[in-house]
Amino acid sequence: MLSACAAPVPATVAPAIEEKPAEAAPAEPAQEAPAEAAPAENPGKLTVLCTPQEDWCVAITKAFQEATGIETNYVRLSSGESVARLRAGKDNPEFDVWFGGPMDGYEVAKAEDLIEPYVSPNAAAIKDSLKDKDGYWTGVYVGALGFCSNKDVLESMDLEIPDSWDDLLDPKLKGQIAMAHPATSGTAFTALWTINTLQGGDIEKGFEYYKKLNNNVLQYTKTGSAPGPMAGRGEIAVAIIFSHDCVKFQKEGMTSLVTSFPAEGTGYEIGGVGIIKGGQNPEAAKKWIDWVLTGDVQEIAATVNSFQLPTSPDAEVPPEAVKLETVNLIDYDFIASATAKKGITERFDVEIAPAPKE
């Protein structure tokens, strides 16, 4: 799926420009003083709607500001929250560019005219399957959905590490599972659409599964990765999250966590980047996209223990990243999932559990 592609176009990010003051001419009694140098050009500002984990948002916005001189701020929101925020601010956008989060959200934003196309010269190096053909979004990373389990908790319950969606329905796991809510989290919606796909696209059968799973769910969190630390602390046995998040928590000291994948198939995400329609700083947004599509920049993720697979063939793949050839990935239809997302999440909110407020 992520086979090598053409050599990347070099990055085109320009540093901030500082004008050099003009040298004064030798003083002469009859001459006027030389004119003062013009002030340095204002490189602009950028506000990023950032969906990955907080430390990645901090690291990448700081690095962009240092590289370009553009004053850069961000707001961290989950994918579902991001679409809702963009929708609410459509007439007066507060963001310039959206970074990260599964492609379903970008397809919803595209359909609702919340983002606009931009084909970066650096997108030429990105595989066609990892970008929108019209430039509304371009993939910056890939991740696989999995189970993040506390092996000590499972051992105390005399249970094996789950490797099937049906394993999560074991009555022994009542109150021992956590996942995010699909109305606020792209991670959780990926899980829902995975189940629908495995049920042959039958939404009714999908909801039959959700209702059974709900019997074992202790909590639906607002953000996709939040169930991971719950499992790490032993509050639950199993979290349904992207595998790279589980690895992050392992690396940060939660050594009882183990990652596994459902044998019958699992979903995946293409984390994207796109320009907000009507944003106040479109040129800065374009520079951001050019920049994040380069290999060196995509390697920033691993420095904060975010081990997604980079999309740039120039980026070094971290050894901790999932090896997709070892995982049974479903045929995930991002267009169909985006079309169905509103109806499914609203129904989930009513029939399964309401979305968390905080």
Describe what you observe in this structure:
By secondary structure, the protein is an alpha/beta fold. It has two domains: 145 residues, D-Maltodextrin-Binding Protein, domain 2 (3-Layer(aba) Sandwich); 147 residues, D-Maltodextrin-Binding Protein, domain 2, CATH 3.40.190. Helices cover 33% and strands 16% of the residues. Strands 1, 2, 3, 4, 5, 6, 7, 8, 9, 10 and 11 form an eleven-stranded mixed beta sheet that branches. Helix 3 crosses helix 12. The two termini are 37 Å apart.
SSE topology sketch:
Elements: E1 45-50, H1 54-68, E2 71-76, H2 79-88, E3 97-99, H3 103-111, E4 115-116, E5 138-150, H4 151-156, E6 177-180, H5 186-198, H6 203-214, E7 217-221, H7 227-232, E8 238-242, H8 243-251, E9 257-260, E10 268-276, H9 282-292, H10 295-298, H11 300-303, E11 309-310, H12 334-351
Parallel strand pairs: 1-2, 1-3, 6-7, 6-8
Antiparallel strand pairs: 3-10, 4-10, 5-8, 5-9, 5-10, 5-11
Content of β-strand: 15-25%
CATH class membership of the largest domain: Alpha Beta
Q: Count the beta strands.
A: 11
Distance between the termini: 37 Å
Structural class: alpha/beta
Query: What low-confidence regions span 5 or more consecutive residues with pLDDT below 50?
Result: 1-42
> How big is the Rg?
23 Å
Shape, per Cα inertia axes: globular
CATH superfamily of the largest domain: Periplasmic binding protein-like II
Mean pLDDT across residues: 90
